[in-house]
Structure formats: C-alpha cells, structure tokens
C-alpha cells in the first residue's frame, strides 16, 4: 500500500467513524461511546517493519441515574484478541452523601496518569509497560470513595489487581488470591493535582509472588495553553517482575483545536533485565468537538534487549459521543 492510498484510506476511516451519532433516551438514561481507528507503522532495528490499518477499538456504554443510585454498563470491541467483544463496565454506585460513595461490580483501576480510554489520551501509544505492565486495567470488587473540593481518596477490595487474561477483567475469584487498591489525591493548589496510589496482589492462583505497586503522579496546568506532568511507578512482583517506570509530559495548545504533546518516558527492570527510554511527539487537531485527528512519532532506545531501537509512526482518528 503506497502512502497516497494509505492517506486516502485513513480519510475514509475518519469520515466513517464520524458518522456515528449520539442517542439520547431520557433524563435517567444516557448513551455514550467512542470509535478509534488508525494507521500504525513500527520499524525495529534489527528486525522487519510491520504495520496495521484498522479500527483499533470501539466502546458503547450506558449510564443510569436514579439518585442516590447510579449505574454504568459498557461493551468494548477490540479486534484480533481472543474475546473481541467484552463487557467492560458493569457497576452500581450508591451516593451516601457528604462526598462518600460505595461502588460494587466491575470497574477500572485507580492507578495510572495516562487514561485507559483513547479519547482521553494525548498520544496514540502509552508511555510504559512493555516489560513490567505496572498499570492495571479492569477488575471486579467493592470500592469506597470520598471527594470534596480539595481532596479525594478511595479504597477497593478486588478479585485481583492484575489478571492472567487481559486488561479488561480480573481473575474472577477470591479463594486463591485477592487484590487491594487505595489512593489519595490533593487539588487544593490552583491548577495542580497531586496523586499517590498503592496496589497489592496476594500470592496465589496466577500470582507466584505477592505484588506491590506504588504510583505517584502530578500535573500542573500552567496556563490555558500549557500543561506539564510527571509520573513514577514502582512494581515489586518478585523474581523477574520487579522494576520501575517513569514519564515526563508537556502539552502545548496552539489554539482551542490544535495542540502538540511531548513525552519522555522509560522503564527499567531489576535483576539485570531489559530497559528502554522512549521519546514521543504527537500533534493533534480537533476537527469538531467529537472528532480528533492525531499523528505520533516515537523513538525507543533499548538496553539489554533483542531490539536496539524502534521507530513508530501513527495517524489516528478518534470519534466520541
């Protein structure tokens, strides 16, 4: 496929994705979702380059409001995985008042500066996680949360923090092992967010060791056009799964529609394992409030790995409603 054909195909994808429409039901039920497609080219050295041109993922969700109870259900489509269509969110929240709420069901981990959802990302690719995968995804359990104007905190008891399956569900049992998460966030300084979290998976089942993960991140909206952030994650998962990740981030908005994200990130495994440093630049343009186009170039330098370095180029269309 030559570059002209690829560009034309991507333009068709953007038009096709943007054809989706919002569906408003009533005051108690709302529908939300997104569809994301991209062209991505990866060129490792040594190694042969590879590319993909496809719909990356799509989500259709519903939110239910019957105060003081709310609920969420969503279905995720991801091509070329064992379960292409999966139930993602399935939870109910009770608002106890004074900033306290209780949630039960299937929900996303507290951890991670970068969002699980591509519509909330500033880049196409993630900063870290190639070897350690320190940021969990979805799991099931019970959660207690508190929030006020300056503080928020939460604690969760889970089937597992990590999973032997994928990022869309936990291990589905409590007999062999359990998971726990907690976080605290402070927003009492104007335009600043300070965040600290911890996750713990007990030994048993798929976990051969106890796993402790610590996550710290901070962001600062310097002015309307400039945002900076940094994150450090340490994962102690026993022999062969110990190490840390980090990222530094800057997003500069030229206008309300155009912005460019710059990121430097890295990962180091303990016990002499592989590591990398990744450099990313990703300009984006919001064609409408619902449709954004991004283009990313990333260069990754590896140490103690079969690949010396790798270049990534991608163009992505993101539609949300």
Explained architecture:
- The chain is mainly beta and 321 residues long.
- It has one domain: Porin (Beta Barrel).
- Helices cover 5% and strands 57% of the residues.
- The protein contains one helix and 16 strands.
- It has one helix at residues 3-18, and strands at residues 29-45, 50-66, 69-77, 85-97, 100-108, 138-147, 151-158, 179-186, 192-201, 211-221, 226-236, 242-253, 258-269, 275-286, 291-303, 309-320.
- Strands 1-2-3-4-5-6-7-8-9-10-11-12-13-14-15-16 form a 16-stranded antiparallel β-barrel.
- It is globular, with a radius of gyration of 20 Å.
- The two termini are 32 Å apart.
SSE topology:
Elements: H1 3-18, E1 29-45, E2 50-66, E3 69-77, E4 85-97, E5 100-108, E6 138-147, E7 151-158, E8 179-186, E9 192-201, E10 211-221, E11 226-236, E12 242-253, E13 258-269, E14 275-286, E15 291-303, E16 309-320
Antiparallel strand pairs: 1-2, 1-16, 2-3, 3-4, 4-5, 5-6, 6-7, 7-8, 8-9, 9-10, 10-11, 11-12, 12-13, 13-14, 14-15, 15-16
In total, how many beta strands? Answer: 16
The class by helix and strand makeup works out as mainly beta
Count of alpha/pi helices: 1
CATH architecture: Beta Barrel
Question: What helical percentage do the residues reach?
Answer: under 10%
The major sheet is characterized as: 16 strands, antiparallel, barrel
List keywords for this structure.
321 residues, Porin, 57% strand
Produce a short descriptive summary.
The protein is mostly beta strands and 321 residues long. It contains one helix and 16 strands.
């Amino acid at each position: 496929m030559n570059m002209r054909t690829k560009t034309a195909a991507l333009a068709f994808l953007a038009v096709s994705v943007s054809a989706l429409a919002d569906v408003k039901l009533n005051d108690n039920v709302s529908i939300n979702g997104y569809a994301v497609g991209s062209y991505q080219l990866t060129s490792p050295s040594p190694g042969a380059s590879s590319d993909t041109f496809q719909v990356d993922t799509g989500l259709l969700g519903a939110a239910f409001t019957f105060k003081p109870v709310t609920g969420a259900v969503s279905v995720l489509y991801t091509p070329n995985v064992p379960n292409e269509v999966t139930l993602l969110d399935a939870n109910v929240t009770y608002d106890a008042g004074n900033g306290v709420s209780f949630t039960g069901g299937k929900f996303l981990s507290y951890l991670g500066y970068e969002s699980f959802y591509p519509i909330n990302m500033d880049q196409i690719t993630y900063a870290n996680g190639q070897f350690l995968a320190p940021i969990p995804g979805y799991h099931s359990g019970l959660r207690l949360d508190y929030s006020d104007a300056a503080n928020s905190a939460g604690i969760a008891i889970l089937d597992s923090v990590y999973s032997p399956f994928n990022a869309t569900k936990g291990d589905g049992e409590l007999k062999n092992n359990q998971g726990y998460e907690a976080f605290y966030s402070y927003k009492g300084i104007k335009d600043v967010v300070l965040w600290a979290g911890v996750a713990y998976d007990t030994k048993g089942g798929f976990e051969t060791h106890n796993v402790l993960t610590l996550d710290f991140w901070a962001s600062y909206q310097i002015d309307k056009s400039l945002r900076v952030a940094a994150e450090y994650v340490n994962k102690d998962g026993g022999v062969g799964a110990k190490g840390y990740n980090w990222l530094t981030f800057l997003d500069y908005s030229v206008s309300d529609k155009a912005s460019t994200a710059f990121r430097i990130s890295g990962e180091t495994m303990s016990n002499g394992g592989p590591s990398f440093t990744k450099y990313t630049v990703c300009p984006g343009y919001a064609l409408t409030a619902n449709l954004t186009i991004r283009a990313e170039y990333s260069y990754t330098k590896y140490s103690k790995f079969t690949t010396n370095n790798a270049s990534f180029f991608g163009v992505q269309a993101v539609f949300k409603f």
